[in-house]
Amino acid sequence: MPENPAHPACSVRPAALSDEAALGELDRATWSTLHAVMPRPQPPYAPFFDERHRPEGFLVAEVRDDAGELRPAGYIRLVPASPLACNAHVQQIQGLVVAGWARGRGVARALLRAAFATARGDGANRMTLRVLGHNAPARALYESEGFVVEGVLPGEFFLDGRYVDDVLMGRSLAP
Predict the structure, then answer these.
(1) What's the pTM value of the predicted model, to 2 decimals?
(2) What is the C-alpha to C-alpha distance for residues 110 and 100, in angstroms, rounded to an integer?
(3) How far apart, in Å, are the Cα atoms of 26 and each of 31, 80, 102?
(4) Using one digit for the tens of pLDDT, what is the confidence trace for 26-47?
(5) Which one-letter DSSP state was computed for residue 143?
């Protein structure tokens, strides 16, 4: 995929097996109860890619760091919402991560827009996601990109000593 014209330092491309180490490190470095429901990863670390998490389901954003080196700055995971043929028109975001050093450079927005284009290219006309209720920055980003709240599962998760809502969001992919 081409460089994002709104943020010329950010480009988005499909993931490759060679991204395994970098994406695993990025995933561990950004872990937080703001967005994660699984426990903090501990060594020995499981592989980033596995049978359910194939490279084909990920897009990777690359940004030039302060040294001018192009490196992975984030990723988004995009999967079918379900295995049902009657639901094939819906894609679901199941992970969006941006490195701390790359925040504020339009990486998350570039990843979302690339995911929209990829999903449309795959024949989808709708996209959904789930976000934790207390993750205000992510919710604001998703809303600014056309997502609306379509449902809330109150107190669905118990994180850091409190109950947290699971917020279901969706949007049309129609142009």
Answers:
(1) 0.92
(2) 16
(3) 9, 24, 11
(4) 999 999 999 999 999 999 999 9
(5) H
